[in-house]
Every structure is written in C-alpha cells, then in structure tokens.
Amino acid sequence: MNDIKSNFISALDSQDKERAVMVCIESLESGNVEVIDLYLDILAPALRSWDCDYVSDRLCIWNEHIRSSIVRTVMECCFPYIVKKRRDNGSEKNDRTVAVLCPPEEYHEIGARMISDIFTIAGYNSIFVGANTPLDTFLEAAKKLSPMYVAISVSNYYNLINTRRMISRIKEAGGKSRVVVGGNAFEKNPDYWKEVGADIFLKDPREILALGKGDVK
C-alpha cells in the first residue's frame, strides 16, 4: 500500500488528475487495495499532509483546491467499487436512511462524502447533503426523510459552535434521529462530541460498519 500511496501523492503534487485516478482505479481492479482503505489510508492522509503557507504562498489556496478537486474525481470514479463492496459484505441496500452533511459555514466536504460512501457499504440508504448546509432547509427535509441517523462532519474547529446549534435545533424539532459526529475538529477535543449534544462519536469511520451490523439485529 505504501507504493500506491507514494504514487498517488506524486500525481497529486504534480496536479496530474489522470494519473492520480488511474493509480487508484488500477489498484482497486488488481485487488491491491480495498476501497475503504483507499479512502482512509491514502486519500485522506494525502489531503491532511498538504502544508499550505497562506501568508507566503499566494497560490496556496489555488493549489489546495486543485488537490481537493482531484480527490473528488477519484471518489466519483470509486462509487461502483463502493456498491460492489456493499454486495460483497452481504449488506444489501435497505430502508435505513442516514443524512450526511456539514454544519453551516463548513466548506470542507470530502470527509463527509467519505462517511456517506462508507454508510452505503454498511447497507444504509445514505443521502449526501454536502457542505455548508442551511439548517432550516435541512430541518424541512428531515421531516420527510425521517433518517435513522444524522451524520455531521466537522473539519474546522471554529465550526463546532455552529455544530452545537445545529444539533440543538435538530433535537428541538423532535423525531427519532440519532446524531453522529466526526471529523478533524474533534481530534484535539475527543470529548467535545458530548458538549455539542451528539449521540455517537466516530473516531474511526470504519466503526460505521459495526454500527450497521448492530442496527440489523
């Protein structure tokens, strides 16, 4: 896997989208990597390792956005492997719905997309809402969806306040949805999920698979 990771990062550093995609797809096709491991052990670390000096490098944000765009393209190409992995696990799609989103003003959505795809592997009807989700709009949609889980991904520590407000409104609206949180914002504050009012904290997205098995019982 180290060779796959280094080849992918090399393609990412040179902003070679075609090569980055082919490194990942060929690795999946050959069976050298599983799709969940590709997401969590290659794509996510490649983004986190990017050292961007916003002060001295005027193209820093430009380059960061290009890297993120390449990773999004890779993930779009991976969806058939997500569905195949779900079938291989014997977790056929069912009516357990999960809504995956980011709080208002949180624009980093790749982590949320990864979470959504892993929920799909676990057999859930996973609805990826995306970044910067307006709260009132989501609450209206939740009335119709009645999701089993609302999964909120938070990357920026400063958005934990918005997350707490969002969870408070979700619970005030009633319903039976359980709120799941995760993301880089909790890394240095592992107990803060309780402060924001969540029901479940996912330290490792792979925990979703065990969550799914528990819901089936």
Which key phrases capture this entry?
alpha/beta; 5-stranded parallel β-sheet; 9 helices; globular
Can you tell me the overall shape? globular
What oligomeric state best describes the polypeptide chains here? single chain
Helix content: 40-55%
| DSSP summary, beta strand count | 5
CATH homologous superfamily descriptor of the largest domain: Cobalamin-binding domain
Task: Report mean pLDDT, rounded to a whole number.
Answer: 91
Strand order, largest beta sheet: 2-1-3-4-5
Tally of discrete structural domains: 2
In whole angstroms, the N-to-C terminal distance is: 34 Å
Order of helices and strands: HHHHEHEHEHEHEH
* Alpha-beta content class: alpha/beta
Spans of at least 5 consecutive residues with low confidence: none
Give the second-level CATH assignment, the architecture of the largest domain: 3-Layer(aba) Sandwich
- Determine Rg (CA atoms, Å): 18 Å
Please summarize the sheet with the most strands.
5 strands, parallel
Q: What is CATH's topology name of the largest domain?
A: Rossmann fold
What's a concise summary of this model?
This protein is an alpha/beta fold and about 220 residues long. Helices cover about 55% and strands about 10% of the residues.
Tell me what the structure shows.
The protein has 217 residues and is of the alpha/beta class. It has two domains: 1-89; 97-210, 3-Layer(aba) Sandwich (Rossmann fold). It contains nine helices and five strands. The protein has helices at residues 2-13, 17-30, 35-48, 60-88, 110-121, 135-145, 160-172, 192-195, 207-216; strands at residues 97-101, 125-130, 149-153, 178-182, 200-201. Strands 2-1-3-4-5 form a five-stranded parallel β-sheet, covered by helices on one side. It is globular, with a radius of gyration of 18 Å. The two termini are 34 Å apart. The mean pLDDT is 91.
